[in-house]
Amino acid sequence: MEDTIRRFPEQFQWDPVVEHNEVLRSHPHFIICGMGGSQLGAMLVAQYGPIHNITIHKDYGLPNISPEIVEKALVILSSYSGTTEETLDAGREALARGLSIAAISTGGKLIDFANEHALPHIVLPDMKLQPRLATGLSMLALARMMGNEDLEHRIRTAGEAIDPLAGQTGGREIAEMLRGRVPLFYTSTANAALGYVWKIKLNETSKVPAFANVVPEMCHNELCGLDVGESTINLSVNLHAVFLEDASDHDRNKKRMQIAGEILEERGIPVLRVPLAGESFEKVFASTITADWVSYYLAQYYKVPDEATPLIADFKKRMA
Question: CA 104 to CA 108: how far, in whole Å?
Answer without folding.
Answer: 11
